[in-house]
Design goal:
2 domains; 6 strands; four-stranded mixed sheet; about 170 residues; two-stranded antiparallel sheet; alpha/beta
Length: about 170
């Protein structure tokens, strides 16, 4: 809200019928009591049915979706999550095929009378330049490693030859 004309831009884009947007902009701190009535913690505490959460890496609700996943997972609720290469609104357009497939598979596994396909893992995420990966949990496990700059600009876990020409790059954030 400070330094950017987000309220007026929202009014120009959405018109006068968007007081909710301006109230959101006026409360940028997630810990602001303003947001308390919108938190889903009580509902998540009561939930005892299987839940499929769908989000995207550029979804404005991604952080909330991940928090919901963790909360339900910690309560041992049957929960799964898919994070795709889309925004929140893309799920209704660009991602409709993937989102529908995920949802129907989930519903089939939990509502069908006979055997139904199940997810290979609890979490499915899209990794840029790699594609879809299935993970047992979120956040995924991590590991430390050392990578060395290689002649020609590549990276490798192996040290470059001692007589290799130096690799150079310009760091300009």
């Amino acid at each position: 809200a400070q330094g950017l004309p987000l309220s007026s831009a929202g009014r120009e884009l959405l018109g006068e019928a968007s007081p909710w947007y301006e109230s959101w902009i006026e409360h940028p701190d997630a810990d602001d009591p303003f947001w308390e009535t919108m938190r889903m913690t009580d509902a998540l505490d009561r939930c005892n049915v299987p839940v499929l959460l769908l989000s995207g890496w550029q979804d404005l609700f991604l952080e909330q979706t991940i928090a919901q996943f963790r909360h339900l997972h910690d309560r041992d609720v049957d929960v799964a999550m898919t994070i795709g290469p889309w925004t929140h609104t893309d799920m209704m357009a660009r991602a409709v095929g993937e989102a529908t497939r995920e949802t129907l598979t989930w519903l089939g596994a939990h509502l069908a009378k006979g055997p139904a396909p199940t997810r290979p893992e609890r979490v499915r995420a899209y990794v840029t330049n790699h594609g879809w990966v299935d993970l047992p949990d979120w956040p995924p496990g991590t590991g430390d490693g050392v990578l060395y700059l290689q002649p020609g600009g590549g990276l490798s876990a192996k040290k470059p030859p001692a007589d290799a020409a130096p690799s150079r790059f310009r760091y300009n954030p």
